[in-house]
Amino acid sequence: VTITLAVKNFAMAGHKDDDHDEDHHDESCANSGHAHLYLDSVDGELLGMALEASITVQIPASTSPGSHQIIARLQDVSHQPLSPSVQRSVAIEIK
């Protein structure tokens, strides 16, 4: 499944690095990070991590037929959810 994300006031970026570590968040880290994608619950299995606006994720073969949700949640460069949380979901049907 290919997911396309549209974000405003947020820069899609990679993991923390020398300029963006968890002990030193400055203005260059603000409003930047990536999205984690989950199936049905943000407490469930991580399907993928989007560093760009488009990502292809594989739905696990063990997923039961029926209605499900793919959830995209924005994370900072240290993989922490933004506060307040910023997430959206889309309904999918598994046959």
Q: How would you explain this protein's 3D organization?
A:
The chain has 95 residues and is mainly β. Helix content is 0%, strand content 42%. It is built from no helices and 7 strands. The strands form 2 sheets. Strands 2, 3, 4, 6 and 7 form a 5-stranded mixed beta sheet that branches. A two-stranded antiparallel sheet has the order 1-5. A hairpin with a 6-residue loop joins strand 3 (32-39) and strand 4. The chain is elongated, with a radius of gyration of 14 Å. Mean pLDDT is 86; it is low at 18-26.
Total of helices: 0
Radius of gyration: 14 Å
Task: Report the average pLDDT across residues.
Answer: 86
Query: Distance between termini?
Result: 14 Å
Q: What is the β-strand count?
A: 7
Q: What is the percent of helical residues?
A: under 10%
Query: How does the major sheet shape up?
Result: 5 strands, mixed
Please specify the SSE layout and strand pairing.
Elements: E1 2-4, E2 11-12, E3 32-39, E4 46-50, E5 54-56, E6 66-76, E7 87-94
Parallel strand pairs: 2-3
Antiparallel strand pairs: 1-5, 3-4, 3-6, 6-7
Keywords:
single chain; 95 residues; mainly beta; two-stranded antiparallel sheet; 7 strands
Summarize the structure.
The chain is built from no helices and 7 strands.
